[in-house]
Write a structure and sequence with these properties.
alpha/beta, 12 helices, TIM Barrel
């Protein structure tokens, strides 16, 4: 039984969600309509996915950033569909509440709409995620419509699109010129019209991201795009201080787990070498 608060009103939906109600694409639309910020993080394995889910984060993205964070690659371009299905499967297994979205990797959706549909379906049917994300603007609208028409939710991604890094040649801020900013506005509208339920905008000027967020009816989730978006996403390994090859300006470090883990490992090695571990109490 739900008990009203002192004002006689029912608890807000977001408060009920925090106690375990499943997050859906519709939930995200409701949060945007109410002006409540959406939280999102990445995960690539069962353990971290479970921890993120238990923390009450709304969206877990199985990102192709696994190529850099897990595989030690310099870009996301070499990540394969089989690898993404594996990561998505183990992440989905650890999640009860959050909406699980998986990246479609490079060349899994660019060839034609039929192949994109098959790969999106594989993510849903085999890996058990609830939506897919792909990078690109208006040129992908027909592909997105094809995927959405069979019942698979699609999240778009504009601005800095890491799968196109060899085209850009740099990870610098995108849409800083009038022409590119106008293109991003048009692309955002085209993705919404094609049926995307949400949009990630990466590394673009804050005012442009705010404008796009306000102009669309679907949620816009920013990364390196300022506080004017409907939500925020970070690579979890970045914000925890686990991935230390570089520290983007837009990443706030909420911990230095890399240092803490290194300290634990050194202490373990020292205890084994000195004979202090295992102790009699840790033996049979």
């Amino acid at each position: 039984m739900t008990v009203p608060d002192d004002s006689g009103e029912q608890p807000r939906e977001q408060e009920r969600d925090a106690r375990g109600r499943k997050v859906t694409t519709r939930s995200l639309s409701t949060l945007k309509a109410r002006g409540q910020r959406i939280t999102a993080l990445t995960a690539y394995d069962f353990l971290l996915a479970q921890l993120i889910d238990q923390a009450g984060v709304d969206v877990i993205l199985v990102g192709d950033s696994a190529g850099m964070v897990v595989q030690g690659l310099d870009t996301t371009v070499s990540v394969t569909m089989d690898q993404m299905v594996y990561h998505a499967t183990v992440v989905a297994r650890g999640v009860e509440r959050a909406l699980v979205v998986a990246d479609l990797p490079f060349m899994s959706y660019q060839v034609n709409a039929d192949e994109a549909l098959r790969n999106a379906g594989r993510m849903i049917q085999t890996a058990g995620v609830e939506a897919v994300k792909l990078e690109g603007g208006a040129r992908l609208a027909p592909t997105i419509r094809r995927i959405v028409d069979v019942g698979i939710p699609v999240m778009g991604h504009l601005g800095l699109t890491p799968q196109s890094i060899h085209k850009f040649g740099t990870y610098q801020v995108r849409a800083t010129t009038v022409e590119e900013a106008d293109e991003l506005r048009r692309d955002a509208r085209a993705l919404q019209d094609a049926g995307c339920f949400a949009l990630v905008v990466e590394k673009v000027p804050a005012e442009l991201a705010r404008e796009v967020s306000q102009s669309l009816s679907i949620p816009v989730i920013g990364i390196g795009a300022g506080a004017g978006c409907d939500g925020q996403i970070l690579v979890t390994a970045d914000m925890l201080g686990l991935y230390t090859r570089f520290h983007p300006r837009f990443v706030r470090r909420y911990g230095e787990l890399g240092r803490a883990i290194s300290d634990c490992l050194r202490r373990y090695a020292a205890d084994v070498r000195s004979g202090e571990f295992p102790s009699p109490g840790e033996s049979y």
